[in-house]
Amino acid sequence: MKIYIETYGCQMNVCDSGKIVHLFANQGYQPTSDSRSADLIVINTCSVREKPELKLFSALGRYIPLKRQRPELVIAVGGCVAQQWGEKLQQRCPGLDIVFGTHQLDHLPRLVAEVRQSHKALSATDFLDCPGGLEVMARPVPDAVSAMVTIMQGCDNFCSYCIVPHVRGREYSRPSEAIIEEVRMLAASGIKEVMLLGQNVNSYGLKASGEISFAKLLNLVHEVEGIERIRFTTSHPKDMSDELIAAFATLPKLCPSLHLPMQAGSDVVLKRMGRGYTAASYLEKVEKLRRVVPDIALTTDIIVGFPGESEADFQQTLSMLEKVGYDQIYSFKYSIRPGTRAADYDDIVADEDKRDRLARCQALQDEISQAVLLAQVGKVVEVLVTGSSKRGEGEWSGRTPESRIVNFPAPVSAPAAVEIAAGDIYQVKIVKAFKHSLRGEVVVDAGS
Ligand code: SAH
Ligand code: SF4
Ligand code: F3S
Fold first, then answer.
1. Distance 131 CA to ligand 2 centre (A)
2. Are residues 397 and 264 in the same domain?
């Protein structure tokens, strides 16, 4: 039996898809990259904007007709669109066998078995207080250096534009013991870097009685032998505590890189978004962080064209990009999400203005990113090798602690015994900056 899985959306979805593959491996399913030879097709969906949502319908348009040749093929749709639409998805797309919500991941093998027996469409989208999928521990991909660990589910922030709280449910923190056990298991299987995931990791544990804070959790992860690098995402600026900022100074394995979504630079817009901070208080957090880790690499999310955003408001977003100097940004045109508060706001920004603002925002950031990368030339940085580079034979690729991509050739002058492998750490001198990556030369083979 073969399973084909397609994933859209955030890292949490990527992590969930890994768990699904693992659950079906236990049932004898092999993963395949060829949808036409699959016995089970799973689409793990995202509804954060209209674009990823629409991807589902074109995918179903491709896969449902495959059932004509393969009547035993089962098609399941999970994730955030599945949660939002429920069985209405099956009314719209006849031939879709299973709709499973964001809290039902661990029930999928049972649902597939039931459908194979009954040949009837099924949907399961209840929210649970303690979603079982969080405790499914996927074995890491062979030769992987890095692994994701979901530490929280859901979100209680209800930013006015955002569908996530509606489709992932209430905020729930996984017990810290379970998280540490998973990190230990990953370290024992050779993983060097963990990425802790949640919609707002800064509020980890705050609503669970007797649970530790996120900063304390980081301390525990730091103690796990074999783990060399720790990252986390996403951090909500309003919940970025001094304790967490201090952790960057005291935990050497905690990488100096942080995704801190700003969304907009205008206080009026931030207020209507319900973000709970101002541009000034955001900058204050950035300054505090930079006092502790001067070279911290920051990335952010930006929405342009939120209802009511004037040109002057937008200019403030541009000005924030200049003030902060992000390594990279992820910028989006505002997309109306039915059921959210902002869907009822009527001062809509015209699509051509949104497009224009997005282009200006990205053009400015390209310049800033280029300057950040150029400033790296000449520096010696620590690179964790992630694998051979796409450029070809003898070329390797890795990341700095700041998460910058570095490509480098295997050192020719090195003793023959030095063999580079994923997971090694090298000191690399940066010789050139490209648009999205750096090029370097190994100076010390610290990893061997
Ligand atoms: N939990 C994270 C964000 C998760 S969604 C946080 O609080 O920052 C990822 C990003 O998608 C958001 O940061 C936001 O920039 C973008 N986004 C969310 N809803 C959107 C919408 N309706 N239109 C456009 N972009 C949106
Ligand atoms: Fe969405 Fe806001 Fe929650 Fe992030 S914090 S997931 S943007 S509601
Ligand atoms: Fe998308 Fe759901 Fe993640 S809406 S961004 S897949 S939480």
1. 19
2. no
* Residue pLDDT, tens place only, 325-336: 999 999 999 999
Give domain status of residue 138, yes or no. Answer: no
Task: Verify that 113 and 212 share a domain, yes or no.
Answer: no
- Tens of pLDDT, residue by residue over 102-133, are 999 999 999 999 999 999 999 999 999 889 89
Q: Indicate if 342 and 209 belong to the same structural domain.
A: yes
| Buried b / exposed e along 114-135 (16+ C-beta atoms within 10 A) | ebeeeeebbbbbebbeebebbe
Q: What angle do CA 102, 12, 384 make, to 5 degrees?
A: 165
Please state, in angstroms and as integers, the Cα–Cα distance from residue 243 to each residue in 210, 214, 239, 255, 287, following that order: 18, 9, 11, 16, 15
Q: Answer whether residue 134 is part of any domain.
A: no
Short-list 137, 125, 126, 116, CA closest to 21: 137
DSSP state of 254: B
Cβ 152 under 6 angstroms from ligand 3:
no
Ligand 3 binding pocket includes 404 (Cβ within 6 Å):
no
* CB of 321 shorter than 6 A to ligand 3: no
- Overall number of domains in the chain: 3
